Amino acid sequence: MLDIQANLPVLVVVLPLLGGILTTFTGRGLLPWAWAVAVTGTTFALTLRLMATLLESGAPYISYELGNWPAWWGIEYRVDLLNAFILLVVAGVGFVTTLYARLSVRKEIPEDRHNFFYAVWILAITGLLGITVTGDAFNVYVLLEISSLTVYALIAMGKDADRRALTAALRYLILGSVGASFILLGIGYLMMVTGTLNMEDMHNQLLRMADLNEHRTVLVAFAFLVVGLSLKMALYPLHMWLPKAYTYAPSAVSALLAATATKVGVYMAFRFLFGIFGVGFSFYAMPSHLILLAMASLGIVFSSLSAIRQTNAKSLLAYSSVGQIGYIVAGFSLANPNGVAGSIVHIFNHAVTKGGMFMALGAVAYRVGGTDLRDLRGLGKKMPLTMAALALGGLGLIGMPLTAGFVSKWYLVKGAFDAGMWGLAVVVLFGSLLALVYVWRLIEAIYFQEPEGRSAEATEAPLSMLIPIWILIGMSLYFGVDATFTGETAMRAANGLLGGAP
Amino acid sequence: MIEFPPGLILVLGALLMPVVGGMGSRVLSLLLPLATLAAVWMVPDGAHVTMPFMGDMELTLVQWNPPTRVFATIFSLMAFGGALFAFNQDRKIELPAAFVYAGSAICVTFAGDILTLFLFWELMAVGSTIVVFSGNTEAAGRSGLRYAAVHFLGGAIMMAGIIAHVFALKAGGIEHPLLLKYFQFGPGGFDGLAFNGAGDIAPFLILIGILINAATPPFGSWLADAYPEASESGTVFLSAFTTKTSVFVLMLLFAGTEVLIYAGLMMAVYGIVYAILENDMRRILAYSIVNQVGFMVCGIGIGTEMALNGAAAHAFAHIIYKALLLMSAGSVLYMTGKRKCTDLGGLYHTMPVTMWCGIIGALAISSFPWTSGFISKSMISQSAADNHLMLAWFVLTAASAGVFLHAGIKFPWFVFFQKDSGLRPPDPPWNMKAAMIFFAFLCIALGIWYEPLYAILPYQNAAGGDKLYEPYTISHVISQLQLLLWSGLAFFLLLPVLKRTLTITLDFDWFYRTFAPGLWRHVLRPIVVVMGWTRDVLVDESKGFARAMTRADAEASRLSLFREWSLGSAMVLITFMLFVYLVVGFWT
Question: Between B325 and which of A23, A64, A331, B361 could a Cys-Cys bridge form, CB atoms 3.0 to 4.6 Å apart?
Fold first, then answer.
């Protein structure tokens, strides 16, 4: 009898890995989807159990050695509060989007490819979960490749709806591979210096080096890693792959990616900057926080301005995602508890909000056939529940009180004041004004224009789409009112990170 | 006993309304405000309800602040009157939004800490924005966006101030820095305004945030921009809550701040100048809100207990008569579809109820004796006199005369009498009439039996244990009647002049023929020019700016900043970023 409890950390990865591969044999019809729901649902249950186990044990982390090899030889999976939280987000959103995907995928992807679609889909989630759970630097790279390659494939599957999905996927493939090889180079240099791949071990070895701050190799490793990670998390101006990819990917894929992919990129940045290099090196010896802050601030302003100019609702949301990544990066670059907590909370808040909004647009694509702002005209009357979700999500992006967005903004502004960065607080608040303008463009189309052409025949989205949409949007509202769980978890995780534990 | 903020009855009930639908939701719309009113009065005296928030904070949801009772009472009454007026309309969203708006205003009055106050303050902005949108016209949509932008800008400024102050307090070792008592800047907080750091700018940011909501010029153009674009019933709601909640918060946090005297006087004058230039009947009334709120802000600036009582009482009275006037104007708009003074006239033939209610509202806003305006406004000007604030007293008195001219006479005269426009609409539906009659009754009842209102004013010991205030002294009554009769006489004597040119310029005409031409040339015209200029900048420019920013045309996307990167240049950029990190790393 397999002891589930003891093997939880590895099951979170192994179960969907095997489940994903088996999906290719599920044939046609409803089965691939049902199988995917079962696999992602079980995985989600496992992450919940993992979180509960961690909280009950009271220990700072759960360590799991693969194949019982000692950590410094083999691979160690290590779950602390931070990655348990991210795991929950990724697995949770993965599960809800899978629930949602059935009709959307049936419409957008030819039926003979459904088994492959769901196989790749589950493998993408596996990769993201794996990056999050592992405590081994090289393992991060391996799983990063799994998630990246599958995501390229998922985006390319949008080609039946719009051929531009192919170029978008190719573009992401090229840029993403550059990013991944930068990360690989960074990890390689680090291994050269420290002789280990285990994150904690790396950290300890680095700390033991007397000339750490002047060490050229460490510096080069750092530069490669930061640039590679910036690419992966789509930090402005290295976001060039993201807007097209999100716009032309199949609807369900956009929702999954927007909610999870860049967030896991941010999580990697946490692990490398705080965990391996440590706050002292990343933010004091290297003034990288200044560069990151500058890029984040530029990103908040310019990508919001770009979002305002979009005529397609999906690319509007995609640019808005780049801006939101700006908030997240700005938060952790402050390297103080409130800022980092704001960053972690926003990972969650933005995941549910943006995931819900992309799903709502997916419902529009399903009913109307496109997501141009023109297609949204007058849908407030035709699809009231879907559009209400979209509008509420939009309020969350602005950071209206009583939505989750406000909670993150509150922590971020607090963090900015803690650090004495008035300018950043101004940028954050100005960013929410810009968000008001682009959200307004959605609301104007939805509620103040008359339906025309194909949107005139639209009807309310089917229940199987509405329920997942409202689960996510409902969560974004719930955690805007009662932010105790998210806030406290984020605060504890932030203190853990700043304490330097990998 | 009531263990939750009474305003939540309205907020949550509003969410229920669309679900119930049909007749049920209409009945609910009348019951919810009454239940809220009852709940307000059932909150026990020492009530103190708290809730943990975001881990390390504690929100105080219910607490009696000195002016809470008077404001919460009138807000609930207003919600009832507004709902009655809106009873026959069938816009699904408007009334629930108005209830969220009214309910959060009530929650603001019960807030015991700055964060609770701010949360409901922002919720008000959301509710009211939806009310503006519910005007359901292109113009309403556009001005709704401007309305939202102004309010969220104000909210952002206020939030920045709050956070800065919280940090200053925390640095000072204070355990619960959110409590309202640390935010009561009053006269002391503005002493010695050396700018030493984050904390010192906080009061200014908070004050500016509140003044934006109070429609103080130069931040005030949103009010006259947005209110007349809402629906007939929407405007009635809008007139009551936003500015008066600002008055409440100012009273709580900034009582006795001298700068508010001048801000208030400026508002009083601004409102009159614009109301006289205006032709849209509801916009006239919107400008007169600014004017009336100016009286209250001035009273708060004076800051003695009597002045504060006066400001609170005036807010109470003002909500009733301004709602009454807007209901009257709304009924006319509802029945005729016309909103310009020059298109209306002679409606007294067929709309007697609307006319009489409009006149009672007009008398009340002019503070005619035996109306609600009289028993409240004189408290403020009396406090100005008692404190030897000559300028304030003089401007307030002049502004009272001005109010009578534009709201007291101009509105009813041009709408109901004047030339005969040939329109013969009947009085509006029963519920609109009932709402008007109810508020007209309150206007007069308060003018005669003012004791119940005085009994709930915030500072009961203002007069040192004696009777709080006696409005009906011979000198008060005589001087007010003199003022009113003289300006009334001036209006009617000049009617022949007015009748010849019934256009918008008639007001200019009247102005320089009556007053010494020099007054116009040297005092008023510069004011108008400057105000016109700020208005242009704030309204028109912001329109243009918004349009330019939201344009999605080809020209804009050709801007290099927004152009799609080619893969090659993306690679160059990536390499460049790597270079930046390396250089910075080697350099430090």
Answer: B361
Q: Looking at the structure, tell me whether residues B133 and B158 fall in a common domain.
A: yes
Tokens standing for residue B531: 């105000």
Residues ≥6 apart with Cβ < 8 Å to B19: none
Q: Which residue of A has its CA nearest to B121?
A: A401
**A499 compared with A321, residue with greater pLDDT:** A321
Is residue B436 predicted with pLDDT exceeding 70?
A: yes
Beta-carbon contacts of B209 under 8 Å, excluding residues fewer than 6 positions away, are: B154, B155, B157, B158, B159, B161
pLDDT of B530: 65
| Residue B187: inside a domain | yes
**Residue A69, CB half-sphere, CA atoms under 13 Å: how many?**
11
Q: How far apart are CA A372 and CA A379, in angstroms?
A: 12
Looking at the fold, whether B411 and B530 belong to one and the same domain comes out as: no
* Percent over 90 (pLDDT), chain A: 53
Length of chain B: 588
Over residues B553-574, the pLDDT tens digits come to: 444 444 555 566 777 888 888 8
* CA neighbours closer than 13 Å in the CB half-sphere of residue B148: 27
Please check whether residues B524 and B499 belong to one and the same domain.
Answer: no
Residue B54 to residue A487, Cβ atoms within 8 A? yes
* Domains in chain A: boundaries: 287-502
User: What pLDDT shows up at residue B81?
Assistant: 93
Res A327: pLDDT: 94
Alpha-carbon gap, residue B503 to B491, rounded angstroms: 16
Judge contact between A352 and A476, C-beta under 8 A. yes
**Pair B16, B137 in one domain:** yes
pLDDT at B86 over 60: yes
Q: Is residue B248 part of a domain?
A: yes
φ, ψ of residue B280 in degrees (nearest 5): -75, 125
Q: Give kind and range of the element (H or E) at residue A63.
A: strand A61-65
Phi-psi map region of A235: left, alpha, beta (phi>0 left; psi -120 to 50 alpha): beta
Task: Report the alpha-carbon distance of residue B522 to residue B519 in Å, rounded.
Answer: 6
Which residues on adjacent β-strands are paired with residue B51?
B59
At A348-366, the pLDDT tens digits run 999 999 999 999 999 999 9
Q: Point out the domain boundary residue: B191, B219, B254.
A: B254
B236 and B313 housed in the same domain: no
Neighbour count for residue A29 (Cβ, 10 Å): 11
Report yes or no: A479 and A349 within 8 Å, Cβ to Cβ: yes
Confidence of residue B511 (pLDDT cuts 50, 70, 90): very low
Q: Is the model more confident about A360 or about B510?
A: A360
Does one domain contain both B501 and B489?
A: yes
Q: How confident is the model at residue B516 (pLDDT cuts 50, 70, 90)?
A: very low
Query: What average pLDDT score do residues B170-175 get?
Result: 79
* Cβ distance of B126 and A400 shorter than 8 Å: yes
Instruction: Kindly state whether residues B510 and B364 are assigned to the same domain.
Output: yes
Between chain A and chain B, the number of residue pairs with CB atoms below 8 A apart is: 130
Chain B residues within 8 A of A288 when measuring between CB atoms: 581, 584
- Considering A63-72, B66-75, B365-374, the range whose residues carry the highest mean pLDDT is B66-75
Question: Are B119 and B235 members of one domain?
Answer: yes
Host domain of residue B318: 270-514
Structure tokens at B512: 């320089």
**Per this entry, what is the length of chain A?**
502
Q: Specify the number of domains making up chain B.
A: 3
- Asked whether residue B431 is domain-assigned, the answer is yes
Q: Per mean pLDDT, which range of A151-160, A408-417, B3-12, B524-533 is the poorest? A: B524-533
More confidently predicted of B312 and B538: B312
Residues on chain A touching B552 (C-beta within 8 angstroms): 308-311
How many H helices and E strands in chain A? 21, 2
Answer yes or no: is B311 within a domain: yes
**Interchain CB distance below 8 Å, A433 and B152:** yes
Q: Which whole-number Å values give the CA distances from B242 to A40, A287, B227, B275, in the listed order?
A: 48, 46, 11, 20
